[in-house]
Amino acid sequence: MPSATRAIRRGRSDRRPEVRAAALALLLVALTAGAAEAQDGFRRNPRLPGEGELEADIAVGANAFRRQNGLRDLTPNNVLAGEARAYAAYLARTATFSHTADGRDPAARAQAAGYAYCEVAENLARIDENRTFIPNLSDMFMQGWEHSPGHRRNLLDPLVTETGVGVARPPGRADSYIAVQVFGRPLSDRYAFKIGNRAGRVVDFALDDRRRTIASSTTITFTRCTPSVVAIDGITEGASRFQPRPGGFYLLTAPPAGGLRLTVRPAGEDADPSN
Predict the structure, then answer these.
(1) Distance between CA atoms of 222 and 15, rounded to whole angstroms?
(2) Within 10 A of 170 (CB to CB), how many other CB atoms are there?
(3) In this predicted structure, what is the pLDDT of residue 42?
(4) How far apart are CA 118 and CA 158, in angstroms?
């Protein structure tokens, strides 16, 4: 059962991608009497899974859990997998267990490994099996994460698209395992959109609830890693609140009747019609 859990979150901003981490320690010490016969058989002929087998099973389990919740599968990423394996090995070798045991956070490790990111999240878990009968260790990892709020949030993040899993065993402890699953949204998923002001006056608006202004005869290009919401004050024609499309151009003009008109230009059609 879970004996410790911790979740860390840093919020998104224009300049700082999101980093989330959650750690879980599981200590498995006993089974019910109904499993005693199977447990005895396991002790006589133990069959402990290898690290690579567990890594594959955890990745499959994570995607199955996402599909159950209406989310798309995560794509395996070799860079994230290499980083996850390296960190799992470090935790096993040093007998430490935290997201900053090596002096870096998950995002810093991913970046050092060569992963340019919009978002990084990390789940950790440790199982000390103590030679009890465990039918499927990957299920134990997944069940612990699924029932822990921080880990569950990482597993079900709709914005992450890639993952890597690493499993390691502490020296001299063939029956103990440390698992690291890293989730990522690559920097290549960034998108840009433009807002142009041809209304003849300064316009106030909000981008993700942050208040801003755009001067007349000005076009601003915004680059985002994740979906955003724009709300523009004083719109009388068109949507006053919308989610920008990648490559979209949103033109503000002053109609004859007064107020503000918002014209949406499709991606690739960002020429200013007022010119």
Answers:
(1) 11
(2) 18
(3) 41
(4) 13
Q: What is the largest CA-CA distance in the chain?
A: 87
Q: Which residues contact 20 (CB under 8 A, 6 or more apart)?
A: 7, 8, 9, 10, 120, 121, 122, 150, 153, 154, 157
Q: How far apart are CA 206 and CA 232, in angstroms?
A: 6
For the beta carbon of residue 50, count every other beta carbon within 10 angstroms.
10
Q: pTM of the full predicted structure? A: 0.77
Q: How far apart are CA 168 and CA 180, in angstroms?
A: 9
What is the enclosing helix (H) or strand (E) of 166? strand 162-168
111 vs 120: CA distance, rounded Å: 10
Separation between Cα atoms, residue 95 and residue 172, nearest integer Å: 12
**Within 10 A of 54 (CB to CB), how many other CB atoms are there?**
23
**pLDDT tens sequence across 208-254:** 999 999 999 999 999 999 899 999 999 999 999 999 999 999 999 99
Strand partners, 222: 193
Q: Which residues of 209-243 are buried (b: 16+ CB within 10 A; e: fewer)?
A: eeeeebeeeeeeeeebbbebebbbeebeebeeebe
User: Beta strands 230-232 and 241-242: pairing type?
Assistant: antiparallel
